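User: I'm curious whether this sequence folds into something compact or stays loose and floppy. Could you predict its structure so I can see for myself?
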Amino acid sequence: MSNHEPTTSLAVVQNKTAPDDRIIYRQDLYKMLGITSETLRRYLRDKKIPPADIAITQRTVGWRLSTLHAAGINLL
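Assistant: Here's the prediction. I'll summarize afterward.
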């Protein structure tokens, strides 16, 4: 009988986002951009801002900082 037990390795699951890739919530985003919530809604409709990455509720949504940077929106 051969000793072929399956080898197991501990895989470290890493967050694929950078540590500073924080979430910017809707309320913070329009304030950081210096626009109103209605203007933010129009920007989303017109695809000037990408769709939110995270939706906790229908009203509580957020974007990864990297998503906004990739769209050319540099906040920080």
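Summary: Residues 23-65 form one domain. Residues 5-15 have pLDDT under 50 and may be disordered.
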